[in-house]
Amino acid sequence: MAEQSAEQASVAQAMAIRLWNSRWLLVAGVIGILIAFAFAGISAYVLVPALLLLLAAALLPTTGLRQSGENAAAIEAIGLQRLSGEYLAAAVADPLIIFDRSATIVHANAAAFAAFGGIAPGLSLPLKFRAPEMQTLLDSVLSGTIASDVVDYTEKLPVERAYRVSASSVGHGTDLYVLVFKDQSETRRIDRMRADFIANASHELRTPLASIAGFIETLRGPARNDPAAREQFLQIMQNQTGRMARLIDDLLSLSRLEMKPYLKPGTEVDLRQTVDSVIDSLAPLAHENSVVIERDFAKGPLNVPGDRDELFQVFENLLENACKYGQSGGRVVVSIAHADDGSEPGIDVTIRDFGPGIPEEHIPRITERFYRIDVETSRTQKGTGLGLSIVKHILTRHNARLTIKSEVGKGAAFSVHLPTH
């Protein structure tokens, strides 16, 4: 009896709370009904049921938002229960392997199969990954001394790849563990390129600096009172400072190009006028090297989208190289022609020399920074080893491409294909 009374009191209290929470809605409803009764001529028989319906609505639970939130949480829980470890592993882009306490593979995602091959449930991880660092990683996680650990691992076959491998337990009491392989190969390649670049640039600057320092010491000592030696040494020092200035200018050009890798479209460049200007500017160099520059330009407009100053630098570098390294051929031919092959309509600018040519094994690497076929010849010709790298960067910005064809003893041809739109 007491329990029944308590239950009734609880129900009454809940109804009172609901009425209080809905008080403003209830007041507004009553006012609306009374106005309708007074001005719309509604019958009293309709008024009473309307008031009763309003009271019933006010007594309904007011926790709809909370119930909606609870329903959403329940739906989310059901959805997560439907997700198996296999689905979650497949959603990870990096190679992922799930294994048990005996270091046996339970599951591997598609990225792991593609990276390592020969992986299947039931395979022993220590047999698959025999490197000492991987053995240590597995032992440390399986022993329970640490919850997770990370090591660097290199896979040798089929191609060498560097990974940052993390191992950790899955949840609590599942006796399952996971290995995730983060590919670091590209990052390490870039780091090596950066280190090589700094080493090469330092070497290129150190050599003329050492030469200048040596001549300064000589001028302050044995050659102090020797006018002929002083004039000779000062000329060499001037040449060396010029070499350093060219190297710094090229380094700054590369830096600027890397800071803005994409070209804003919209500017038209007249290739005929640009290449003519390049030929005119290098006429003294061609005369100095006893080289005749011949023109072979197509008729009609030769316009492409791009940056004139950058394209001028491209053709200047290529023509300067042709005059310096192909001087034994006696002539250089600069041609401009339309290239309408259907898929990539554009204009080809080809600079061909008739010198000693380039051995085939050097062609794939000739656009690398500081790469030289003949170091002594390059330095004699005042080359920095960065000219073709600058050409490659500028052409990339213009969505263009460079093609190099050469035959030893017959010269080399550098062709630039520029899209017309």
TrEMBL record:
Gene3D superfamilies found in the cross-reference section: 1.10.287.130, Histidine kinase-like ATPase, C-terminal domain
Keywords: ATP-binding, Cell membrane, Kinase, Membrane, Nucleotide-binding, Phosphoprotein, Transferase, Transmembrane, Transmembrane helix, Two-component regulatory system
Enzyme Commission (EC) number: 2.7.13.3
Molecular-function GO term, any one: phosphorelay sensor kinase activity
Lineage: superkingdom: Bacteria
Residues annotated as transmembrane: 24-57
InterPro entries: BphY/WalK/GraS-like (IPR050351), HATPase_C_sf (IPR036890), HATPase_dom (IPR003594), His_kinase_dom (IPR005467), HisK_dim/P_dom (IPR003661), HisK_dim/P_sf (IPR036097), Sig_transdc_His_kin-like_C (IPR004358)
Protein name as catalogued: histidine kinase
Organism: Rhizobium loti (Mesorhizobium loti)
Lineage: Bacteria, Pseudomonadati, Pseudomonadota, Alphaproteobacteria, Hyphomicrobiales
